[in-house]
Amino acid sequence: MISLAGRDIQHAWGKFVFTGVGLGLLIGVTLTMAGVYRGMVDDAKALLDNSGADLWVVQQDTLGPYAESSSLYDDVYRGILGMPGVARAANVTYLTMQIRHDGQDIRAMVVGVVTGSPGEPGQPGYLMSGRRITRSHYEAVADIAAGFKLGDRIRIRRNLYTVVGLTRRMVSSSGDPMVFIPLKDAQEAQFLKDNDVIVQQRRRTAANPLFNRPGVPGLLDATIASQSTNPYVNAVLVQINPELSPEEAAEPIRRWKRLQVYTRSQMEEILVGKLIATSAKQIGMFLVILAIVSAAIIAFIIYTLTLGKIREIAVLKLIGTRNRTIAWMILQQALALGIIGFVVGKIAATVWAPFFPKYVLLVPQDAVRGFLSLMAICVLASLLAIRAALRVDPAEAIGG
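and the corresponding C-alpha cells:
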C-alpha cells in the first residue's frame, strides 16, 4: 500500500510538484512574516545595544525617548554625573526625518551625539570605514543601509553634512538607518524654528509691552536671544559603575532629580511590549490567516486526489484491505505535499529575505516550529479525504 501511494504520486507527479511549489511559496511568506517580527525585535534590541547606555534618563511621566517625545534641558547631565554609581552621562537627541541626497529623500533617524572619546554613550560603537565625528559641526556618520558613501554631502534641514564614517546595524526600532551628527547641530535641526517663524516671533515679542518696558533695559534683547537658543535634548544616556545594579543607580536620580529613569530591561519592555505590540498583533493575525489558507489548500488537493481514485479504493476494500491502510496511504500523500511545500518555502524565504526593505531575521527555532505546525495541518487537512475514502462502497469496484 505504501508503494501504491508512491505510484499514485509518480502518476500525477507534475500536479503534485506544482501544487507543492505553490504551497511552498505560501509557506515562504509565512516564514518571512515571522522573520519580519523577529527582525523588529532584533532592531529594538540593537537600538538599545548601540546606545551604549545602562540607564535612560528622560522627561518625567513619559516613555521617551523612543516611544514618546521627551524634552530635557541640556545641562541636566551635569547633575546626573554627580549621582552615586554614575560613571558617564551624555546628552542625546533623536529625530526621525527625511534626508535629502542626490535629489532623493531617505528616511533615517538623525542622532545628535556628544563628540568625545570612543565609548561615550550614544556614539556608534563600530565603524566599517572612515572615522568618527571630530568636529563640532557639519560631519556625519551613517549606517550603510542609508546608501551613503564616504565623502557624500547630505542635507539635514538647512545645512549640508559630509559623511566621514560608515557603520553597520545602527538602526531605529522601526528599522530606519541612523545618521549621527554633532549634538549642537542636532539640537538646531530638531528644536530651532525656521527663519520666517523666528522673525514673526521677534516682531510679536517687540510689540508686547511686557517685554519693552523703559524701566527694564535689555529685557527685550534677552528675550529674543533666548528664543534663538536650543537648550533641549531628548534624553541623557548613563553608564554606571559595575559595583551597582542598574536599579540601585536609577533610584537616586528618580528621587532627587525628579526625572524618569529606565533600565535596560524596562526600556526593552517599552520597545517590544508597547512600541511594536500592534505590529506584532497584525503579524500574528496574518500568520493565523496563512495557516488557515494553507490547511484549506492541502485539504482541497488531497480531497481532489482521493476522489480521483475512488475506483481504486473500492477495489482495495473489495480485496480486504483494512481501513487503517487506506487512511495511511492518504495521510502519506498529505505529509509528502507538506514536506515539499516546506522545503520550497524555506528556500524561498532564505532567498528573498535580504531584498526586503525591513530586516528579516530567520531563526532555526521558527523553522522547526513551522515544520511541526505544517505537519499537524497536513494531518488535520487529510481527515476530510480519509473520511470520504472510508465511506466508499466496495460494490463500486464491480458496478463502475
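(Above: one complete record from the training split.) The two ends are 22 Å apart (CA to CA).
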